[in-house]
Amino acid sequence: MIKKRIFSCFLSFSIFIGLTGCGEVSSVSETVSASESVPVESVVSVIEEPETVEEEKEVIWDFDEYINEEWKNEQRKNGETTVYFCDGHRQIVKERLVDILENEDISALSEDDGLYKEIVMYRQFVNAADENEKNIESIKKYLSKIDSVESLNDLYDLYKDESYAVNNYVLKFEINPDNFGYNELWFVPNAMTDKISEIIEAVGGKGPKDKGESFLALMEQLGYSKERTTEILDNATKMGELISDYWNNPKIDGYTYYYDSEKFDKNDVKVPVFDILKELNAFGASEDFLAEKGCCEFLNTTFIEENVPLLRDHLLIKSVFLFSWISAPAIVTEEAKDMKPAALSFLMINAGDVLTKEYIKRYLDDSVIEEANEYIKEIKQAAIDTVYDTSWLTVHGKELARRKILKMRDVIAENEDTDDLSNITLSDDIVENYLAFLVNRENFFRSQTAKEDEGRQVYKADMLDVNGRFYPEYNKVMITAGLLSYYADAGEMSYEEKLGYFGRTIAHEIAHCYDPSNIAYDGDGYFEPWFTDEEQSAYDEEIKKLGTFLSGKKDEYGNEINVNVVMNETYADILGLKICLRLLSEKEDADYETFFRTYAKQNASYYSKDDAEAILKDSHLPNKLRVNLICGQFDEFYETFEVSERSEYFIPKEERIDLFTK
Predict the structure, then answer these.
(1) Per-position DSSP letters for 456-515, written without gaps between them
(2) pTM for the complete prediction?
């Protein structure tokens, strides 16, 4: 029996936004060189207190602009609204994957081969418009079972069917690790509010006209009048509001609880959740799931006969959204007729392991992975040394902190548990195949709940992105195949370039094991606070100082950042750079200028004023601040570059953040 207990856990569901940062060039920066670029409020000071012309040009006001101004100007000229330096390699990865999917000779592959199945699915997807009539009939057949729902029991029967369960966002479950590292079911109903609202606005003439017309044309081909379409959207919206109320319930205390059939009986829950989950083979070692405190009340008040139209149409609209990609009426422009991006995205999400294996075989030598492993070891040791220098940790505390790094395992290029698509059987119907891939992915995830010791495996990371990640529940650091190929494609680099190009990402991810959200996880990945009261107090003081420093900071458009949102990532940025600088300090004739330049270049980004609101929702600092404020914490930066004390990005020595202080 697995021991269970209540623990604090806040769920977060969001689409990852790329790291962003720079703004439009002001009239001032258009008239001076990059090294002279100054904030508007500093212009008068420069004029009133001139140095010699030569000296003034040497002063840096904005290190991000100093390094990245030319690159960002190119993005503006190209009409970009939000773009990041690493987007170039992300596009290269996608082009390589498309090449595999389009040009591989499938006659040389077995029909049981996962790559064969992916290629067939991709080519069917890309050519979906050519068989629109057939596709529409298949979709209508699928939707007809939802249309025929008249009672709760009808709904429950559909929920037990895997092909409908993937679209059931009211009784929606995801598989994620709990605080014991075991993969567990989490109850995560999804209102789909933004997507539904977007369609309602488009249909009502308040959004893009072509999108509204396209959606109505699709619904008409599927057999729904405009009036019925409006009713479906209205019902789905009402159901979405009930789901939103569940998440926003003020009585929810921020804790997540285990629910089993006994707890359901005590709360008189009639919804056959456990029967449905058993039918889907969703349970593993224990028949329970994790949910917010208001779960039973939500189920009792939502699943009533009078809400059947709302429940039905929420399932219906999700299904329509799912299939809109492969139906011609949704295509209204020449650009949109290119189905390659949608096809590739679908396969990267639902069959990424097979694609990753093929990508590694073609674009990553074993030597690259071996070098990455050695590099990770070197950075881990620097992290241990950094922590060991800390004055406020006890001897025992240092050993526990060291243990987190020593026991931290690496996931390099591939997921630890992978899906070979062997359970998929293809047909000549793209709708059936589309569903088969979705169901297979869900089944693969569900299979993780049956594991115990093996449950500490990373199994659903996007290894084709250009990124890294730390998993506190596993105490593992992950480096993607996309990031490794980015590193490999760069060619010969100096030690300092490697450190700023690749090492800083690894150090950042390793540093996350000590951030405010992850510090309480121990070396085994258990949520087990290990600080003494005195150590916790000292740590809290460092976090408080960081919060005070960040408070009131604004992006280049004057928008104030949310300190709570960016705290963890900023912590990892600062500690990660400190680890890198420790390594650099041990090198004879270290080239700090190249290191900082490389770091700034890798964090180059540009976003327009219109995109600022979305950027500020990301958990990282906007990249202009990520360059200037992170580099600006370190003496080595000021010793290398002459940053004006009048610059808004200059940080006085007493305000600089030193994590794990000596």
Answers:
(1) G---S--TTSS-EEEETTTTEEEEEHHHHHHHHHT-S--HHHHIIIIIHHHHHHHHGGGS
(2) 0.87
Chain-centre distance of CA 401, in angstroms? Answer: 27
Return all residues near 161 (Cβ < 8 A) that are at least 6 apart: none
Alpha carbon of residue 395 to chain centroid: 36
Closest CA to 602 of 482, 466, 446: 466
CA distance 576 to 578: 5
Give the single-character DSSP code of 527: B
Least Cα distance to 5 among 171, 230, 184 occurs for 184
Collect all residues with Cβ–Cβ distance below 8 Å to 12 and sequence separation of at least 6. none
Beta strand 409-413 pairing with 476-480 = parallel
CATH number (1.20.120.450, 1.20.120.80, 1.10.1380.10, 3.30.930.10) of 128-338 reads 1.10.1380.10
Average pLDDT for consecutive 10-residue bins of the chain (662 residues)?
Answer: 36 32 31 36 36 56 96 89 92 97 95 97 91 92 97 98 97 90 92 95 84 90 96 98 91 82 96 97 91 94 98 98 74 62 95 97 94 94 96 96 96 96 96 97 94 83 95 94 93 93 95 97 92 97 97 95 97 98 95 97 93 93 97 97 95 96 90
**What is the residue type of 417?**
D
And the tokens for 410?
């690496």
Letter string b/e over residues 465-492, b meaning 16 or more CB atoms within 10 A of that residue's CB: bbbbbbbbbbbbbbbbbbbbbbbbeeee
Strand partners, 292: 256
Angle at Cα 309 formed by Cα 306 and Cα 312, nearest 5°?
A: 130
- Residue 558 identity: G
| Long-range interactions of 142-149: CB distance < 8 A, separation 24+ | 142/319, 142/323, 142/431, 142/435, 143/222, 143/316, 143/319, 143/320, 146/312, 146/315, 146/316, 146/319, 147/312, 147/316, 149/308, 149/311, 149/312, 149/315
Question: For 379-391, what is each residue's pLDDT tens digit?
Answer: 999 999 999 999 9
Q: Shortest CA distance to 386 belongs to which of 470, 507, 206? A: 507
pLDDT per position as a tens digit, 408-434: 999 999 999 999 999 999 999 999 999
- Alpha-carbon 116 to chain mean position: 29
Spatial CA neighbour of 469 closest among 563, 569, 383: 569
Structure tokens that stand for 2 in this block: 């697995």
